[in-house]
Amino acid sequence: MDRAAALRASAALFAAAAFVGSGSYVVAHPKNGAAPLQPPAETQLTLRTPAPSATALPVRTAHATLPPRITLAPGVQATVLPGITFTHVS
Amino acid sequence: MESLKFTALGGECELYGIDVSPAALAEGEAWVRRMDKRLTRFNPWSELSRFNDSAFTPRSEAGRRFGSWVAVSRELELLLRESLRAYAESNGLVHVGVLPALRAAGYTRDFDAGPTAPTAAPPPPAPLPELLEVRHGGARLLKGAAIDLGGIAKGWMADQLAEHLGTSVLVNLAGDLFARGSGENGEGWPVGFGDRTLLLKDMGAATSGTTKRAWAGGHHLIDPRTGLPAESDLSEVSVLASTATDAEIYAKVALLLGSVDAPKWLEGRSQGWSLT
Predict the structure, then answer these.
(1) Is there a contact between A85 and B16 if contact means CB atoms under 8 Å apart?
(2) pLDDT tens-digit profile of B6-17?
(3) Cα–Cα distance between B35 and B72 in angstroms, integer?
(4) ipTM of the predicted structure?
(5) What is the pLDDT of residues A2-44, one digit of tens each?
(6) Which residues of A touch B194 (CB under 8 A)?
(7) What span, in angstroms and rounded, lies between the C-alpha atoms of A38 and B5?
(8) Contact between B263 and A71 using a beta-carbon 8 Å cutoff
(9) What is the pTM of this model?
(10) Chain B nearest-CA residue for A70
C-alpha cells in the first residue's frame, strides 16, 4: 500500500470512529428531566429599577408654548384655509 | 391634484402637483430616495461618507494639508458649491464643516438609535473655504475635516424637484419646502407657517430649531463660532425666501443670531419669518 492510500484509509477510519463515538455518546446520555443542578424557575416576578444607561437617551422636547412672533412682507398673503402641509424642524 | 407622501431624509416628505401624473410623483420619490442614500452620513458607503473618508490620508502623505481630490457626482458638486455660497451668505454661520463637533456632541449615528456619550469638543472649524475645495467634477477636504450637508441638501433638493416636476407643484422634504406656481385655487399653496396658514407662490420655506433632534445635554444645531450646540434665546425659526435653500440658510442664521439680531438680519432678505 502506498503512502497516499494509507493516508486516505486512516482518514476514513478516523471519520468513522468519530461518527460511531459521537453517536454512542448521544445514545448513552438521553435528556434526564429529573437531573439535579437545574436552576429553579423564578416563581415571583421581581421588578427592577432601570439603571441609568451609559449613553443619554434621546429626549424629544416639547414645542415651545409661547406664540411665535411673525413678520410678513406686504406681498405675502395669509388665509383662513387649513394648510395642506407645513414647514417644520425635522 | 395628485399627491404622494413618504418617509425619507429623516422625516415626512410630501409631493403635490396639479397636472402632474402619479408616475411623475413616484419618480420624484425615487429620486429623493436615491439622493438620500447618496448624501447620508450614516451609511459608510454613501458618496458623502466616502468623500469625508478622503480627508484621512495615509501616513505616507503626512506632509500634505489636504486629502486627495475625489471625483464627485454632479449633484454633490452642486451641493458643495451651495454650501460654500451658504457660508459666504451667512458670514460663516452656516457651516457644513461642523460635523466633527456634531459627532463630539454625541450625534454620531441615526437619531433613532440614540446619541452616544459626548467627547471633548474639537476647536471651532476653520473657515469653510479653507477646508473645502471644489473643482469641476471633483472636490477635496482639509485633513481631518468632515462635512454634513444637513438642511442645505433638503432645501436644494426641494428646489430641484419642484423645478423638475411641473409648473404648479409643492414639494415638502422633511420640513423644507418649495411652492411653485399658484396651487389649486390660483392664489398660492396653503402652507402652515408658525401659527398661521400662508398662500405661497414661487416661494420656499424652511424651519430651524433646537426642539427636535435634542437630547439631554445637547442638540443637533452646532454654532460654528464655538463648535458647541448653539445657545440661543430662540428655539424655533421659520423663514420664507425665494428658494427653499435660501430659506434654510436664513432660518439657521436667524436662530443662531437670536431674537434681537435675527429680524435685522432677515430684513431685506426674507419675505417673512416666525420666531419662537
Answers:
(1) yes
(2) 999 999 999 999
(3) 13
(4) 0.90
(5) 889 999 999 999 999 999 999 998 888 876 656 655 555 444 4
(6) 68, 70
(7) 55
(8) yes
(9) 0.81
(10) B274
